[in-house]
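Dock 6R9; give full complex structure.
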Amino acid sequence: MQGEQIPVFPFDYNLKSYDEARQHFSWADVEKEFSWYQTGKVNIAYEAVDRNVLEKGLGEKVCLHYSDNLRQETVTYRQMMERSNQFANVLRKYGIGKGERVFIFMPRSPELYYSFLGIVKNGGIAGPLFEAFMEGAVRDRLADAEAVAIITTPALRKRIPKEELPHLKHIFMVGNPEGGLGEGEIDWYAEMYQASSELEIEWVDREDPMLLLYTSGSTGKPKGVLHVHNGMIQHYQTGKWILDLHPDDIYWCTADPGWVTGISYGVWAPYLLGVTSVIRGGRFRPEDWYKTIQDLKVNVWYSAPTAFRMLMSAGDEIIKQFDLSSLRHVLSVGEPLNPEVVRWGMKVFNRRIHDNWWMTETGGQIISNYPCMPIKPGSMGKPFPGIEAAIIDDKGNILPPLQMGNLAVRKGWPSMMRQIWKNPPKYNEYFRIEGWYVSGDSAYMDEDGYFWFQGRIDDVINTSGERVGPFEVESKLVEHSAIAEAGVIGKPDPIRGEIIKAFIALREGYTWSDELQSEIIDFVKKGLAAHAAPREIEVRDKLPKTRSGKIMRRVLKAWELGLPTGDLSTMED
Ligand code: 6R9
């Protein structure tokens, strides 16, 4: 094998040999692990929660350790089953049924998880949102999905523009708003208190949808990625082999449920394997994070490069105050994991950080570094057994090792998205090359079969692990009265991966000032989300555009990086 390598640690892993698994693996064998294989009755939430209680004797086992700075709570699998049953019953009481979209817009808390699982048990489609979303982002998503209900908190209710959402009938309020409940608002706690904890769960088809997650592309509004119950097959097996979950593990996935990682690997994978999960609410503080690992004896820890880089920049002295010896397995996803961070992980935790690659659209992990395999720092690893990934050119030819091209996945893995909500053309774009899903990322494979990420092919920005579409930010910017036109790019940043940089041209009569700059940043924060606001703004007389009027972000990027601008033949004079 070539290049820098970190050898395997001698633990007893679920996956013993990657090569052997690749040869003998079949998804059909994994299906036999589920109850529905015997009973024919399908619901991912049954397999993830109820089955642990009713069939596996894990009712008194802790499902969730929740904590933030004000609250600490333990939820057993039985409690998780009963409370999610209750919420499913509440939904039924209000006539909300199978296939209807119910959104969740609230900070991390046990109530969020009861609600999420209740929606799925009722056969509904859950739409988790980041609590950071502002009114415009909330409206776009609820409107597109024609959501009938939302679960939220008093602090966030003002960001839900009811008048503009004719389909939205019910707002379940977790907590007591000042001045009481408004029209269409329902007291979540009061309803839960009255609801039965017994439920006739809604049995569904494996191909029935359960999750709608909005994600950004380079053009247009965010698109609704739709996932089905069948994804459980992949969540289960990747949880076993990539997360390497063992029955007695304490597992902490730091991702928010507004992000696919916080659902596929913050709920489904650990619950399907019946392990104990840790959920931490509140803001990020290095001390709190290390203390969480120490106090709860976390063994398996799944986080993201941006978080590791923040921990790294907080300094190694802090780490010495905590006992982190419980950690066995550490993983990362969301952005390129810098080799420097992998080396830091070896130094401070004496553990390898295992990078893996996947997307909202893939629903589950696709490429990974496995614990039983040497790590090459900077590489995403190898495709999951049973999944074929390749580097292909625009015609669909598989490229030889070391050649850069489209990172693509052979169509048809279990957790693949099944639709872009109400937008078949967008869905078909991903499958434009016969037999393949084209990810939009570019990469190459080395001679040992390891994949190396190179960049996005479109202009999507990845800031602290969040995908931000430049078009959405540009559209918001030009809504501001001072801005004539705007072009937005990702600028490389040592902590956040990329930051959002906006180039703008001002309208006649406006002059640039620090006040105007803060006003504009605030405008985007309030209109979209804090993470979508530019951290840098540069004013230009004019922006580079194509003859058809498209802002040429590639030219802006070249300006920013001091690189040659390349072919400018399509640029207006
Ligand atoms: C799970 C998730 C997907 C995009 C993806 C790629 C980037 C994710 C990565 C990575 C380099 C990794 N990405 N993992 N880039 N190395 N290990 O992140 O989903 O939010 O949809 O983002 O993130 O560009 O295409 P999502």
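Observed: The domain at 18-445 is CATH 3.40.50.12780 (Rossmann fold).
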